[in-house]
Amino acid sequence: MPEIRQNLVTKDWVIIATERAKRPEDFKKREKQKIELPEYESTCPFCPGNEKEMSPDETLRIEKNGKWQVRIIPNKFPALSKTGERIRTVDGIKRKLTGIGLHEVVIETPLHNLTTALLPLEDVRNIIKSYKMRYNEMLKDKRIEMIIIFKNHGEAAGTSLIHPHSQIVATPVVPAQVRERFNDAQKYFDENFECVHCKILSEELKDGSRLVFETKHFVAFIPYAALSPFHLWIYPKRHCSSFGDITEDEISDFAVNLQTTLKKYYYGLDDPDFNYVIRSAPTDLKNLDFFHWYLSIVPRITKTAGFELGSGMFINSSLPENDAKFLRDIKI
Amino acid sequence: MPEIRQNLVTKDWVIIATERAKRPEDFKKREKQKIELPEYESTCPFCPGNEKEMSPDETLRIEKNGKWQVRIIPNKFPALSKTGERIRTVDGIKRKLTGIGLHEVVIETPLHNLTTALLPLEDVRNIIKSYKMRYNEMLKDKRIEMIIIFKNHGEAAGTSLIHPHSQIVATPVVPAQVRERFNDAQKYFDENFECVHCKILSEELKDGSRLVFETKHFVAFIPYAALSPFHLWIYPKRHCSSFGDITEDEISDFAVNLQTTLKKYYYGLDDPDFNYVIRSAPTDLKNLDFFHWYLSIVPRITKTAGFELGSGMFINSSLPENDAKFLRDIKI
């Protein structure tokens, strides 16, 4: 008998269709596309040497051994315009806002053919450090209400450029979905006198069956109502609502946790395409008791179809406890 | 300057990134995979002759010229179990429900190599008729709260079987997303004394710039805040909250509207992969003043990435008015 599990945070229902379940090994890439990539590609706008000709002015640079290791630049085809005012207009059913905001690209390494799982640990630390620095800089822009840091790895995850990179989009609105989750988390706090995320974290640590990897400050686990196979959350243990408040000590620890988790995917599932996103509080809200920032990883090894689009419910063909055990057992 | 448009029903924001805009022609399939398919495939579980051996007992059949034209059968690998009771359990953060419900497949034609755009109109009418019959039959099951009728066309839309088919899933819960939209629609009604969908429909008819195709009883249009290129809604003109209440006259007209719209996709965008879904009211609610059933089509010609996953906001690289004009101008 399948189970329908409810996500305590979002109230979303997920059908855990155990009768359709595959073994974790079945999610490995069918056709290994082991194309050997070069370290440098002359036509790549992110490779060293192409900085001036092909990419606009950088907003941040972290150096290593006298050369850049991380560069952040404005997206050449930004979804939002950097300049302009935030103006709302209503005309009958047509409600709109000027598309202002920031859209930047984080070039994670000078090497064209690497990925987070394979970088030196120090480089991963620098990537997270660069996220924090730009996050806190963007916070100062009064037009911005939300900052979304995310990575698209591989074609199925929506990227067109191979060179390792992530993105930061700062929007002049709080997305409806984010606001709803916030309202729900606040209600949970009002009713239970505790943060729903802290509650989840303590229960997951006690239960243990969905844990993947624990470090001093972070816990990687498969959520009880995971939306899809190997969907995973990394929670900071310290209650904190804004990613921008991550400490130096936590950055180092987060780098270990994130990279180890990504290594487990890389070796266990043969470098699957994935997205990750940092879910942090809207920028106008500080030190919230009821919300906890975290990172969510979604491997793109299955496809969403009409059922998901039409209901917002998901069918997960994999048992979260099995996925967690599989990843836990992969030793790096 | 890009625009951020708000969907009046869902309150979702969509970034209309005009600077990234492509021409409609650019969305055509890059590599034409014109594989000639046979009318009959001996290994296909939906082809005539394979009924007994390969597919479980049918729940509905519509005949034409003494042979079946539409068959509905239980899904061989159902996401939900047909038998069992609806039992809720809570254990700390673990909230679940027995995975009971119905999951059926609508085999739309005996011919392996056709698609809705190319079927005789009578066959499309029979498909819609079969949806209505099963919908109203499933309504009688007291364990069911929601019935979702949808179609996955093509690999990018999540289907693995080529033979033309759609699916019906009846769930023992109202999905959180559906409930939120309902609450919002009810609030809109309370504040404005009218159905938000009726309002949208009358404004779209007046405006005209996003209309694609109008028949006696139905209107196909690109929503003002379309989530992705060529995202389209077909609304019935008569206010009605349940798809199950569609009349015979409306079924005939809906068949014309749906097929013509799908033909415009087929010829204009070179048979793109797509999902469609019928959004109807939860089954316990009848004759609602504030909700209107409709059909939503999402062509799968772009990919959602980390930004969409992490915010619920979408970036649409296509201007809804341009998409509407492009489809409007395709004469069938």
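The mean pLDDT of chain A is 93.
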